[in-house]
Amino acid sequence: MTSHLDRLDNDRIRGFLAAQKSDGPVLVVDSEIVRGNYAKFARALPDTRVFYAVKANPAPEILALLAELGSCFDCASVAEIDMALATGVSPDRISFGNTIKKERDVAAAHARGVRLFAVDCREEVEKIERAAPGARVFCRILADGAGAEWPLSRKFGCVPEMAADVLDHAQARGLVAYGVSFHVGSQQNNVAAWDSALASAAQIFRDCAERGIALSMVNLGGGFPTRYLKDIPAVDAYGASIFESLKAHFGNRIPETIIEPGRGMVGDAGVIEAEVVLVSKKSDDADEIRWVYLDIGKFGGLAETMDEAIRYPIRTAHDGEATTPCVLAGPTCDSADVMYEKTPYPLPISLSIGDKVLIEACGAYTTTYAAVAFNGFLPLASHVI
Amino acid sequence: MTSHLDRLDNDRIRGFLAAQKSDGPVLVVDSEIVRGNYAKFARALPDTRVFYAVKANPAPEILALLAELGSCFDCASVAEIDMALATGVSPDRISFGNTIKKERDVAAAHARGVRLFAVDCREEVEKIERAAPGARVFCRILADGAGAEWPLSRKFGCVPEMAADVLDHAQARGLVAYGVSFHVGSQQNNVAAWDSALASAAQIFRDCAERGIALSMVNLGGGFPTRYLKDIPAVDAYGASIFESLKAHFGNRIPETIIEPGRGMVGDAGVIEAEVVLVSKKSDDADEIRWVYLDIGKFGGLAETMDEAIRYPIRTAHDGEATTPCVLAGPTCDSADVMYEKTPYPLPISLSIGDKVLIEACGAYTTTYAAVAFNGFLPLASHVI
């Protein structure tokens, strides 16, 4: 009899799941895939330093592996800085990349030796001046995020026209105006999406140079996608496109660059095994849609199904058999805990209560997004192998 | 100088917050308000048993208080059943109200003595038959949720026309077809919202009677609101309206009834103290909107700001001074972590970085909705006083 595990290409994860028996949903991350992804980024952008976005998956084994491979770390909080430092890396391999920081957290990072901070306004510059005197700052600018699948709001960054003033403000206060950052939007499928932001960055370099400030670095952010249901461009294609844009806008004075992959580094390394709790219909009408309820949902690790943004590949033992569109929902008593309803998900008609399913490409933005104890359900279990 | 705490009407919470110093956001729940709310429900619906929706706030102190007051408990999972049992109540005061249950969880509940289960389809009935033979089941029907502020999907319940078949299926399999349940939608502002569902319930009672099945109970669900920014009807008005509908549809054969208040029981009992991390603008344009970033957001306890559904009252030391519309966002590096943007929130112009604010009516659906460690941020701290 075919098992859901037969659908897995990944031998290591298959073997792990076959050997263990879990009562609830479980994420398994294959560290060898992470290793391979790091190598791809290093090859695609050979002159660019990698700052892994710790928030994507802060599992200690992943951080340790990336530290060993030479990665730096983009951290969103002091807790993430401590996780990065726990790998043994020196603090000069850490960036405090959150533009929204309590001054006492800036001080805590500074006390730990961190000297690179993101800002997007004068007010944040002044916190850094007081709590991390002399540190390097880069100014985040708004990018439009067109082509990205995860919504990018205006939450981070200022308009490009304001950046030179913010960096000037930093330099005048004894900080090192170090560079410019932006983010082209998560799960960015357009390899050319970096171009217009790089044009803005080059203009900010020129504006700052006119004021006597020599910027050094462009932080290209993240946005590198994971393959969900649709094919995505190869990392090499991103590297080539970004390098062309750098040449076009900076000429022969290409700055130091860094990237902050999160999803692109770990997304495709993880698989969640979940269970079908219920398959039912709301009425006896023949054309009534089928509801499939899993033991994982929006509050148990699949938060990125918000607004049906990320559509995960789902494998079952019955793949290849006839399918029917299904509403896919989680196990909690919250009516918002529905993953796919506007665009129902085709699943095998033979899928039954108690069947296990595999949700692929779940390595990023799952474990730490799970709620503490929503409806009494445990947070997502996780193993790195 | 005015403190944000001067804005609090609640002396007990004010005293507690004044005496403690927290580094991050903290929820304080006043158990005396919960006690008062229970009394209001008991008075408004004197013949109705209260099954507190544990998921709203499962703090042990709250469960213990409600157990002492005579409440029963509506549980979404075995973990919640164990929390309810930990208060010392007997299992006949517990309902397993989730329509989506693993069969082994039904068995676990049955082993603990629970004998009352929700179902909304034949498949779920068959799990109960196997794992909890002889138990009482009630069938949840769909209700339209008009007038509710928190979105109600079709996730739970079947069409009323299917309910008699589901209950018949239960009775035929040795279970006790016990009644009908529905939910009129969370934060329901219309006191008459129960009427059409009660009409459906009465029809199901008649349909079952024709088949020789005597139903006993109508579970009126939750939906009772908490006062956020807008005034809400008093609990008495809900009680009176529900009683009128019961009389209209059931005549002189009014069934046993239960309610499952969650938000209505604990929502107004809790206040979150949070901190302003940053106030900034995205450009130097005079009419550029102001962004206010707090140290709590959508992933740290304020999940119900999803789609800007719930608008919490916010108090500051500067209340009464001139205000300006602000985008309100959380502290994480996630662009989706924005609470109010489509409808900006008016906040005092003088509100500054480092100021504390009070977010009121946060007693329900906050602590357990907080993410495990999103971006490294701790889950919401909570105290019941």
UniProtKB/TrEMBL annotation, chains A, B:
GO terms for molecular function: ornithine decarboxylase activity. The gene is speF. It comes from the Bacteria. One of its GO terms (cellular component) is cytoplasm. It holds the Pfam family Orn_Arg_deC_N. The active site is at 333 (proton donor). GO terms for biological process: putrescine biosynthetic process from arginine, via ornithine. This is ornithine decarboxylase. Its EC number is 4.1.1.17. It catalyses: L-ornithine + H(+) = putrescine + CO2. Keywords: Lyase, Pyridoxal phosphate. The keyword Secreted does not apply. The modification N6-(pyridoxal phosphate)lysine is found at residue 55.
